[in-house]
Structure prediction request, 212 residues.
Amino acid sequence: MSNFGDMWQEVRLSVGDRKDIDTEIKSALNDAMIDIGMMFRIRQLITPNTITTTEGDTEYVLATEVLDVINVRNDDKHIPLEKGDSHEYDSLEHDNSDKYGEPRKWFVDGNNLILYNQTSDDSEFSVTYRYVLRLSDMINNADVFPLPREWVRPTKLLAKSYVFELLGQGDKALAAFQQMSATVATRNIGGYYEKIHAKTSSVDFGYYVEDF
Prediction:
């Protein structure tokens, strides 16, 4: 079982034992832990939450630990809702005669889940959204790394990439990132992982999100 102290000191050694940037290394490690969960949709972090719609409401407050919503499903109709966006929502007529009915689309606005097209009528709908759990930062050296053991090395490699980027060493940052993605692919541990494509100066992530 890995702890925070061992992990950040190993990252520090891997970037040249830079004792002058310990704070930045610790921050990079926590950022990497969160981003690993986001990029690969680690199954242990996928959490469902069910809400009930109310008449006339489009906004529903998300659980406080939500990092990212993956998908939304109408449990009563047993169908997934389509992901929309704020631009489409803002362009809709909200005062037409058929504005009320069964929500068909969703997007996230800040801490709110927006259900629209149509606005819920007096029929209540049970809606479940699945999300990536927001992990708490590791602070103390004894804090235990909260992800499964197979994610320790990818997290350290991604943190290493972030530190090299901070130091202005882009080539080394890219190499560490490619090492991380190769490790995940070789171990076949990226739950919803479909592809990661590394470009010369930036990274383009591709995700696969399954319906449920």
Summary: The first strand starts at residue 46 and ends at 52. The helical segments are 4-14, 22-40, 86-91, 152-166, 170-187.
